[in-house]
Amino acid sequence: MNKRRGTDREEKQKRDSSQYRQMRMTIFFRTMLLLFADLVLLYIFVDAFLRGRFANWVVGFLDRVVFRDYNRALDLYQQVFRNYMEWFMAFAFFAVFLVSLWIYLKSFTKYFYEINRGIDALVEELSGEIILSPELALTERKINHIRHTLERRKSEAAAAEQRKNDLVVYLAHDLKTPLTSVIGYLTLLRDEGQISEELREKYLSISLEKAERLEDLINEFFEITRFSLSSITLEYSNVNLTRLLEQLTYEFRPMLLEKNLSCSLEAAPDIPLRCDVNQMQRVFDNLLRNAVNYSFEGGTIRICVQQEGEQLRISFFNRGNTIPKEKLDRIFEQFYRLDSARSSRSGGAGLGLAIAKEIVELHQGTIAARSEDESIEFEVTIPGGAA
To answer: At what angle do helices 2-50 and 85-123 cross, to 10 degrees?
Structure first.
């Protein structure tokens, strides 16, 4: 994965370098064209003076229009122009230089103006593509890429915030049901003095179940709050990955027994891994819990660990209802739940997989989900080995 990112970065740098070379060549040829035009103008001016064309025109004009006397016209030309030829030549060179400099600077200030206009469009969030001069094609592409990225992030943030708000509303609504049940059954136990032991046990069992559901909902509120207010930081250490997964499967035995599930671990003994142990355990806990929640009863959950070069691939397999592709594409989004039922105990706050993805990516790894033919797989790939 890191090699592919490095290759993509190198290809992008080559494309950018090619675009800059084209821009430099365009500016170079435009500069050469402007210099050539200056030389042509100066040649025409100098040629007109040295060969007498300018003198003939001025004397002829004065003779025909002003004096009607050739000698007087020639004498005036001699006094005004011929005696100050060097000054006229210097003025001509200076005028051509100023005009050329103005044209040259105007072309560059136009680029800055267009770039500033593009940045203003970004700041003001104007719709539509930002279009610059052909010489600024690379800058145009980058600005439009930034615009699309900002729009996408804004849309994703708004959608995530809306899902979070909806989830909070759903959870707040769901809090009422178990709380009402607990209060109702406890009231019955208090008020009914001649209640049978069997009925008392039934009421207590229902109250306990509803209280546990209430605890789950409150924990989901805390999970949402922690995710909103805290960021994940890593503290690396060396760990035996095989032992870590063995301990995890052991801790999940009660949860596995509830659905008559078994769990098998396929891993070489004593696989070393350098990671943040607590955070990585959180990832595996979320993935195994997800596999248990969405497995068919009586099935087997398989955890496979494979070493591929410098990478470790940890896969969680289970049999369950096939996850549609549109849900797989969103499964790692914040506050997105596969089970949209508000009262589902397995639904969670929709943060487990989002947190797992963030932790894995902080470890320079990747996480992916696949599902077909009633088979579900979650695959984590992270750099392996220990320091």
So the answer is: 150
Angle at which helices 85-123 and 137-191 cross, to 10°: 20
Report the phi/psi class of residue 238: left, alpha or beta, with left for phi > 0 and alpha for psi in -120 to 50.
Answer: beta
Between CA 348 and CA 356 the distance in angstroms is 14
User: Can you tell me the distance from the alpha carbon of 353 to that of 283, in angstroms, rounded to the nearest whole number?
Assistant: 8
The dihedral built from the CA positions of residue 39, 40, 41 and 43, taken in this order, carries a sign that is: positive
Residue 257: C-alpha distances to residues 291, 298, 375 (Å): 14, 9, 21
Give the pLDDT mean for 344-365. 73
Residue 326 sits at φ, ψ, to 5 deg, of -65, -30
Nearest 5°: phi and psi at 301? -100, 125
Dist. CA 86–CA 302, nearest whole Å: 96
The pTM for the full model equals: 0.52
Q: Encoding tokens for residue 218? A: 């409150």
Smallest CA-to-CA distance from 227 within 360, 342, 352 is with: 352
Residue 177: which region, alpha, beta or left (left: phi > 0; alpha: psi -120 to 50)?
alpha
pLDDT 10s digits, 271-284:
899 999 988 988 89
Burial of 312 (0-12, 13-18, 19+ CB in 10 A): buried
CA angle 351, 158, 362 (to 5 degrees): 45
Mean pLDDT for 220-231 is 61
Cα–Cα distances in angstroms (integers) from residue 47 to residues 41, 51, 81, 155, 260, in the given order: 10, 6, 15, 67, 104
Q: Tell me the domains of the chain and their CATH numbers.
A: 2-126 (no CATH), 160-229 (1.10.287.130), 237-383 (3.30.565.10)
Tell me how far apart the alpha carbons of residues 319 and 328 are, in angstroms, rounded to a whole number.
16
Using an 8 Å Cβ cutoff, are 334 and 323 in contact?
A: no
Q: Is the pLDDT of residue 331 over 70?
A: yes
Tokens 């506050």 belong to 335
Mean pLDDT of the chain: 78
Q: 344: pLDDT confidence band, cut at 50, 70 and 90?
A: very low
Residues 6+ apart with CB under 8 A from 27: 135
Q: What's the pLDDT at 339?
A: 59
The DSSP H or E segment spanning 181 is helix 137-191
Longest distance between any two alpha carbons in the chain, whole Å:
144
